[in-house]
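Revision sheet: structure tokens.
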Amino acid sequence: MVCYPIGKYLGAYHSGTLPTFEWFIVEIIVFSLFEEVFFYYSHRLLHSPKFYAKYHKKHHEWQAPIGITSVYCGKLEMVCSNLLPLSIGPLVMKSHVFTSWIW
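Predicted:
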């Protein structure tokens, strides 16, 4: 709901023509790289003494290594460490909305 207007503003296209399969694969690879790098550094930042107690400690109340615990966090952490890394690739690449939805 929020990403579509931002993507449209930044120049992501949504015409009737779909990207080629080869370009789709390239974009998914680039999205993965963006997501890995941005998640790593945002998560590392949240482990710094300045941010840990206030924003990230809640996330570590769970000890079980399961995926659902990643969303057990505060609002700032959700945006900075969970949503932004997933959204930055399609926004930077100005991807077709179909590619972004598949991602």
